[in-house]
Amino acid sequence: MTQPIRILIADDHAIVRHGLRQILSDSEDLVVAGEAKNGIDTLKQLKKEFPKLPVLMLSMHPEEQYAIRALKAGASGYLTKQSAPEQLVTAIRQVAGGKKYVSPSLAEELANAITDDTERAPHEKLSDREYQTLVLIASGKTLTQIGEELRLSVKTVSVYRARLLEKMKLKNNAELTHYGLKHGLVE
Q1: Is residue 169 located within the same domain as residue 129?
Q2: CA-to-CA distance for 20 and 1, rounded, in angstroms?
Q3: Domain assignment of residue 187, yes or no
Q4: 177 lies in which domain range?
Q5: What are 72-91's pLDDT values in tens digits?
Q6: Alpha carbon distances (Å) from 162 to 125, 145, 147
Q7: Is residue 38 left, alpha or beta, with left meaning phi > 0 and alpha meaning psi from -120 to 50?
């Protein structure tokens, strides 16, 4: 008998972790070995400590917003939480087998990006922290609230804000918010 695939479920919400555990319990070859809280920062830390560890990101964020960032940060695959349970199980098995996993729609988007060679949207050129800062400002959070959420000083958040304003050629938070809403980065 082959070794079962050991899985660490990482999500900020206990109810989501419980639901994932339930989905995975239907497959005999998948064993949940533990649970933790998550994020792209956790992914980077995991990849630093365990570079060969396959990681499948499952996120509430649409693929067009986070998938490329997750893959660049070391994820072996990316799925949205709207995916079917069967797709999750397939993705886990593929990633555990040493392969990459992306949905057909993301694969098409990646292929188009390569062949089109068009200019990327300004927010796609931001670092992960700058992007997080953009999304949080656009959702109405203050620099202090952003600092608390990202566990950064207000001064550091202010530096990220200044950088992203410069990179995106915007003048203030109102323009950032307008940009975020226009491009579907916030709800």
Answers
A1: yes
A2: 25
A3: no
A4: 122-182
A5: 888 899 888 888 888 889 99
A6: 15, 17, 14
A7: beta
User: Does one domain contain both 135 and 74?
Assistant: no
Residue partners of 53: CB distance under 8 A and separation at least 6: 46, 47
Q: Do 18 and 106 share a domain, yes or no?
A: yes
Instruction: Using pLDDT thresholds of 50, 70 and 90, give the confidence band for residue 171.
Output: very high
Residue type, 48: K
**What does pTM read for this prediction?**
0.61
Measured from the Cβ of residue 70, the count of other Cβ atoms closer than 10 Å reads 23
Question: Could you read off the pLDDT of 27-59 as tens digits, one per residue?
Answer: 889 988 888 777 777 888 888 898 888 988 888
What pLDDT does 53 receive?
87
Average pLDDT taken over every residue of the chain: 86
Whether 111 and 149 share a structural domain: no
Q: What angle do CA 57, 62, 63 make, to 5 degrees?
A: 60
- 131 shares a domain with 100: no
Q: Which residue has the higher pLDDT, 120 or 163?
A: 163
The answer to the question of residue 133 being in a domain is yes
Give the three-state DSSP class for 7. Answer: strand
pLDDT at 178 over 70: yes
Tally the domains of the chain: 2
On whether residue 177 sits in a domain, the answer given is yes
